[in-house]
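Students often ask why inverse folding is considered easier than folding. One informal answer: many sequences map to the same fold, so there is more than one right answer. In these notes we will look at a single instance of the problem. The structure comes first.
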C-alpha cells in the first residue's frame, strides 16, 4: 500500500440488484476507515444515469443484472470514463462471463464467496494499480491464455465512414453532436447508424458500443 493511498479515502460505488447484498456492501464500505460509499444502484441503467454526477474511484459491479448486463454497462462506462476502475463482484465463474467482463474494461474479478475483509483489500489493491482476482478466476484466466489465441479484430464490413461514426458513438457522441462534427444533418447520421446496427446485428447504441469495444472494431 502506498502512503498516498493510505491517507486518501477511496470513493466506491456499487451496482448490485440483490437488495441484501447491496445493503451489506454499502454498510461494509461506508463503515470502514479509508473508504466511502458514494452510491449504490440496483440496475446498470440507474448507475449510468447517476454515476456521472459523482464519479467514484472504484466501481464494484455485478454481472448478472436485470435488463442491461453488467459487462455491457461496464463497456459503456469505460468508453466515457477510461480512468474509472471497475471491480467485478459476481457469482459467475464461467469462461464467457470472465472474458466479457475483462474485455469490457474491468480490472479485477471477484466471486461473491470472497470474504468481506478481502473485498476491501481488493478494492484498495485495484485503486493502487493492481488487478485483484479470486484464486478460481485467476486459474481460469491463466488456462484461457494457454488454450485460446488472442481475439482477432472482427470485420463487420463497415465502411470507413460508418467506422468513424461508430467510433464517435463509443466516444460518447449523440446524433446531434456527431452531425455537427461531421458537418452533416442529423438525418444523415441516423441513416448511417441504422446501417451500422444492421451490420453489427444490434438494436441500440449501448449494444453497438459494447460490441465495438469487445470486438475491437474501433481503436
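Output (designed amino acids):
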Amino acid at each position: 500500500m502506498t502512503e498516498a493511498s493510505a491517507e486518501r479515502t477511496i470513493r466506491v460505488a456499487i451496482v448490485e440488484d440483490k437488495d441484501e447484498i447491496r445493503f451489506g456492501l454499502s454498510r461494509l464500505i461506508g463503515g470502514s476507515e479509508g473508504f466511502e460509499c458514494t452510491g449504490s444502484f440496483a440496475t446498470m441503467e440507474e448507475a449510468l444515469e447517476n454515476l456521472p454526477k459523482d464519479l467514484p474511484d472504484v466501481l464494484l459491479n455485478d454481472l448478472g443484472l436485470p435488463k442491461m448486463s453488467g459487462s455491457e454497462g461496464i463497456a459503456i462506462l469505460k468508453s466515457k470514463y477510461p480512468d474509472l476502475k471497475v471491480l467485478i463482484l459476481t457469482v459467475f465463474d464461467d469462461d464467457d462471463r470472465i472474458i466479457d467482463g475483462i474485455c469490457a474494461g474491468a480490472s479485477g474479478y471477484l466471486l461473491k464467496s470472497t470474504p468481506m475483509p478481502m473485498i476491501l483489500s481488493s478494492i484498495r489493491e485495484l485503486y493502487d494499480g493492481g488487478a485483484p482476482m479470486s484464486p478460481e478466476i485467476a486459474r481460469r484466466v491463466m488456462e484461457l491464455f494457454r488454450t485460446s489465441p488472442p481475439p482477432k479484430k472482427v470485420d463487420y464490413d463497415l465502411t470507413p465512414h460508418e467506422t468513424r461514426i461508430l467510433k464517435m458513438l463509443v466516444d460518447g457522441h449523440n446524433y446531434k453532436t456527431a452531425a455537427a462534427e461531421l458537418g452533416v444533418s442529423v438525418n444523415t447520421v441516423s441513416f448511417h447508424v441504422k446501417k451500422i446496427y444492421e451490420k453489427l446485428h444490434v438494436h441500440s447504441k449501448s449494444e453497438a458500443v459494447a460490441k465495438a469495444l469487445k470486438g475491437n472494431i474501433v481503436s
